[in-house]
Predict the structure.
Amino acid sequence: MSIKKYFDVIVIGGGHAGTEASIASAKLGSNTLLITQNIDTIGQMSCNPAIGGIGKGHLVKEIDALGGVMGIAIDFSGIQFRILNSRKGSALRATRAQSDRFWYKYKIRSILDNQNNLKILQQEVEDIILNKTKEKILGVITKMGLKFYSSSVVLTTGTFLGGKICIGNKQYIGGRFGDAASNILSKKLRKMPFKIGRLKTGTPPRIDGKTINFSVMEKQKESVKNAHFSFINNGYYNLKQISCYITYTNENTHKIIKENLHYSSIYSGNIIGNGPRYCPSIEDKIVRFKDKLYHQIFIEPEGINTTEIYPNGISTSLPCSVQNDFIHSIKGLENAHIIRYGYAIEYDFFDPRGLHHYLETKCIKGLFFAGQINGTTGYEEAAAQGLIAGINASRLSKNNSFWFPKRNQAYIGVLIDDLVTLGTKEPYRMFTSRAEYRLFLREDNADDRLTPIGKKLGLVDKKRWEIFQKNHNILIYEKNRLKKTFIHKNTLQEKKISSFIKNKIQHEYSLEELIKRPEIDYSILMSLKGLGPGIKNLKLIEKINSSIKYAGYIARQNIDIAKVKHNESICIPKNINYKKIKGLSNEVIEKLNIIMPKTIRQAMRISGITPVAISILLIYIKKLNSK
């Protein structure tokens, strides 16, 4: 039987971006081929064994709400779930989970194997096929000379493009320790009209848990109730929940590192790429935070059937002998045996300003980029991009219009807009502070924001849609009941409620009005006789509390969003002379002349263009239009 050569969509790379892209494409009915160097590493967690966190957890929830698979896989493989910022408002709370590496990879592979319209091939792609004018993709060529044709190709290369692994003064060619780099493809792409840069990331040594003294470390709480990622999960944990631990570096640790900095690949000049600012190596921490006497280290198990431990917080490119020395200086790790040594890796990335918001490259039609190739860091950021690239690669193959979330719809929209508008000089990481509308973009309402869109696109299956509708109807009914149920003055219920609040009840209040008070929440009201029992689902209770308490703020944000939408749509005249606009600084004028934005929206996203400059520009354009 001959090998099929024509596909609607081809996805290159089996990491977090590639798996989401291929599954999304296949779900939308496109005949999809996933090509990867090694099918045994599909879905592999290359660095830390964890998913989620501040900003990142929001991305996972949104991926799940759109029918993606990362949330399902981490719920299946999670061995410790936590809610970060649990004492803060729900807009800032985030879910994070430790994962069993084996079971995470197993679940991703299982989903891929059982996905209709999807085929997997173990090959290395070495080149892409373009049309005669080199403006449109036609297919790919593998190392064995196989040619596969498609008008939609998604490239998700992770750290494999031109990958260089560094430990001390040793350098190795590789995309990940033990895996070959994609150097031939890197050289081919460098000949194309892309703006290319180099970034770096790193990983810590792995330690045998049998040689760690956990008794002298701080024990981190095990899983909490109601913490999971997927909206179709009823709160069930598939695997045993276990503890993590915390220890710290000390002055001796810092002394060892300082004395050997010149051996570090980062400080010896072997690496030129910028590393992640918010996840620096231990060498960077020692140099940048000279006055700090210690740094926190999270001791994270890599699974329930392995003794391998990931010491989060000490990624390094120091020589193996130095790694041994500084590890043994840390409390609890005095006798630690290193299973794998840490290393830094430098790789190619492409300026994401060369992409459309739907992640198709501007210079080659049908070629999509997703993941670290666009300058991001992290599993979650990669998966989010993969999902959007897969959606649009499929829609292109069917001649449908492209779709991508806006900044006011999702953190995924913030991520993509930041990348394609501003670009990046260092590995981009998602934070809640990057979003203007984070009161609205919460974890708990990601399904309300995105699942109906996912249903229209064709990503949301019958099971997920039925669960969403059921929960949605329960919420509507209960919120209506809260509006219509009143607490009257001088009643037993009023006396009990008064014990929770500062200001006494002066007249009748609906239950909805009471929940708006900071001292009262839904559960308190339902505990009072005659007001409950209400609903028991903790996730739905969280939604009720958040939607009611934030209602006023969200209403104001919706007004702001409408104003921004109106202003963003205003076109900037082609022949505008920025030098004639009084009030604009020379720096702003220079940037506007270089980028030549077509709309106010594009101008707003240019780095260094202030809100004041935008206001001056808007006034000037309105005066021009009124003449």
Observations:
- The mean pLDDT is 92.
- Residues 186 and 576 are 40 Å apart (CA to CA).
- The chain has four domains: 9-200+347-457, 206-342, 485-554, 569-626.
- The longest strand covers residues 196-203.
